[in-house]
Amino acid sequence: MTPLTPQPNPNPQVGAAVKAADRAHVFHSWSAQELIDPLAVAGAEGSYFWDYEGNRYLDFTSGLVFTNIGYQHPKVVAAIQKQAAEMTTFAPAFAVEARSEAARLIAERTPGDLDKIFFTNGGAEAVENATRMARVHTGRPKVLSAYRSYHGATSAAINLTGDPRRWASDNGTAGVVHFWAPFLYRSPFYAENEQQECERALQHLEDTIAFEGPQTIAAIILETIPGTAGIMTPPPGYLSGVREICDRHGIVFILDEVMAGFGRTGKWFAADHFDGGIVPDLLTFAKGVNSGYVPLGGVAISSAIAETFARRPYPGGLTYSGHPLACAAAVATINAMADEGIVENAARVGAEIIAPGLAELAERHPSVGEVRGLGMFWALELVKDKQTREPLVPYNAAGEANAPMAAFGAAAKKQGLWPFINMNRTHVVPPCNITDTEAKEGLAALDAALTEADKHTV
User: Fold this and answer.
1) Residue 33 DSSP class
2) In sequence order, which residues have a C-beta less than 8 Å from that of residue 261 and are 6 or more positions away?
3) Percentage of the residues of the chain whose pLDDT score is greater than 90
4) pLDDT at residue 4 above 50?
5) Which of 342, 333, 431, 434 is nearest to 77 (CA)?
6) At residue 456, does pLDDT exceed 60?
7) Is residue 166 pLDDT above 50, yes or no?
8) Are 456 and 449 in contact (CB under 8 A)?
9) How many separate helices (H) and strands (E) can be counted in the chain?
10) Where are the beta strands (DSSP E) in 250-374?
11) b/e per residue, 70-104, with b = 16+ CB within 10 A?
12) DSSP-assigned beta bridge partners for residue 258
């Protein structure tokens, strides 16, 4: 990336007009509409964005963990402009160059034989279609998913989700069964080490399958590394153990790489990190595939499942499947990541700067109970007491109960850092092409903000 261009001159009057129109007409997701105060954003570039007051923020959220190549990457902007001049849109039933090339580049990087690509508009639709494929392929109704998970907000995806956002939409008849995946820091299995956690989590999954009836289960879906739920890297042997269980029972194994994919973990896909590489039957993606520049997601499909639909129509589709603008953005993004070593940068900066920097913060701040992650995918578990591991705020806290995390967030923003906060955690998920200097700047701001969290410890 070229150096950050100068910010526009502050213009509070325009910012006020943008805010007024938003408050009058925009209905925001996951929010009580009268209790929110959205920041009016004037522009963004690289790892930063700024408001109309002239305040600039280092974005440690990557939007919603999707700007893997940062904002306004010139190669991707140019590709979108070029595609718009040549063919802005076209129906999904036709072969279109941008669509074909995007599918080829994605298939080159997915694990194993996941060589067929079904395009969607985003991650939730990818999960919807992956579970549909699994059910049609197997003729079975149920899908198993983990409690600490997020899979999207459409009908099947929200029922598969394991966090509180599911509760209002859980109809109890969606054919979804939840189970506990491994998380040693807050082990539901009373494990003392990773090996015990792995063994007991796999046995729990075996027991769940036995009591549900393996012949009724179409698929098991897991985020390779759960994202919003806490970035809990699975212990060695767990994912390969799930793969073996699925093979034994004829269950489709779906890996959700919507957040963890396309360089976020320091490899093209998080599945490549584990047990010599894990090959699922279906893999969902979105977000980082084109850095969110134009909405795009999809399902990478194994040869066995693709064969099911070789002479049998697949019962699903989307008007904008493989939209040319989105696919052109994906082609440019993947090529830029390869040409500029962005995946390698995520791995190096994660290992050399983020990991030791966060470990040092954990040593000095009583509010940091655990640091976990890899690449540009990290979480800090904030606690009241390191010994008891009591969370800094209660599960799903809101209002006054969430005041300590709100105070931490406000302190980070005062330092020029925009944090990713969920429950009692802050996640460190900057763009994968972040520079060493920017990473160190973010760690320094995080250090200062954690002093506010420390005030709420015992």
Assistant:
1) G
2) 268, 269, 270, 283, 285, 287, 288, 289
3) 94
4) no
5) 333
6) yes
7) yes
8) no
9) 14, 16
10) 252-256, 282-285, 297-301, 368-374
11) bbbbeebeebbeebeeeeeeeeeeeebebbebbbe
12) none
Helix (H) or strand (E) holding 378: strand 377-385
d(CA 254, CA 239): 11
194 class by beta-carbon count within 10 Å (0-12 exposed, 13-18 middle, 19+ buried): middle
Gap between the Cα atoms of 246 and 175, Å rounded? 18
How far apart CA 86 and CA 188 sit, in angstroms, is 55
169 in Cβ contact with 159 (< 8 Å): yes
- Quick one: pLDDT at residue 16? 97
Q: Residue type for 263, please?
A: G
* Cβ neighbours around 179 below 10 Å, total: 19
State the Cα–Cα distance between residues 397 and 189, nearest whole angstrom. Answer: 24
Write down the pLDDT at residue 168.
87
**The pLDDT value given to residue 174:** 80
Q: Are 209 and 119 in contact (CB under 8 A)?
A: no
Q: Are 214 and 138 in contact (CB under 8 A)?
A: no
Q: How far is the C-alpha of 48 from the C-alpha of 41, rounded, in Å? A: 11
Tell me the mean pLDDT in the region 14-36: 96
442: tokens are 């973010």
pLDDT in tens, 234-265: 999 999 999 999 999 999 999 999 999 999 99
Predicted confidence at residue 3, as pLDDT, reads 41
Mean residue pLDDT across the chain: 96
User: How would residue 2 be classed by pLDDT, with cut points 50, 70 and 90?
Assistant: very low
> What number of residues does the chain have?
458
Instruction: Identify the burial level of 199 via C-beta atoms within 10 angstroms of its C-beta, where 0-12 means exposed, 13-18 middle and 19 or more buried.
Output: middle
pLDDT digits (tens, 9 = 90+) for 102-143: 999 999 999 999 999 999 999 999 999 999 999 999 999 999
Mean pLDDT along residues 430-456: 98
Taking only Cα atoms into account, the Rg of the chain, rounded to an integer number of angstroms, comes to 22
SS3 59: strand
Among 148, 217, 214, 212, residue whose Cα is nearest residue 372:
148
Handedness of CA 64, 66, 69, 72 (dihedral sign): negative
